[in-house]
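Repro:
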Amino acid sequence: MRLGVMQPYFFPYIGYWQLINAVDKYVIYDDVDYIKRGWINRNNVLINGEKRLISLRLNSASSNKHINEIEILDVHIYNRKILKTIENNYHKAPCFSKAYPLIESIINQSENNLAKFLEFEIRQVCDYLSIDTEIIVSSRLKKDNQLSGQDKILEICKVLGADEYLNAVGGQELYSNEDFAARGIKLNFLKMLDIHYKQFKNEFVPDLSMIDVLMFNQPQEIHHMLNEFHLC
């Protein structure tokens, strides 16, 4: 069984969804420390042809708290502003009429726990893209929560019976092939290939949120993109 584990993020880039699609079981890693100035509550979208940040406002966010201990601040007030920014900048995108209701339903949800908000997002986007990977939430697993780093990942692999662990390529320095092999687990890293698509009449702006991908591509086109990676 191939397993993937990652923190939840706010409409993460397409490589995140490639990982979910490539594994049999995917764990939303919600019981680890929140990373300030990371991508858990913010991402880049296309605004006037340029990469710009949109963010969920958080209440007393701290790297001393787990992701599932943080709440979104005044969810309806600030999230309406996010939706207005998306609508203003993408209303002429070819897939706006189909993708916007999905994004609206996610951002307008009443949940203010950050981890649960992002879990709902992940499940909804997976449904939209027909990704049928089993999704599990880390904090709901019975495991040794005193562990951290690689040891905690190995523990999750053991609990779920994984014989292969797949991680985004950015995590290569965090994990040891030898340590995984000693537990009978194959370790691989997913590296996204260069993905380009038409964005209005502008020069292509890479590394944007999944929102941008959804606005310019039909689900079947995105599903093809989900396989544009190699393992290393």
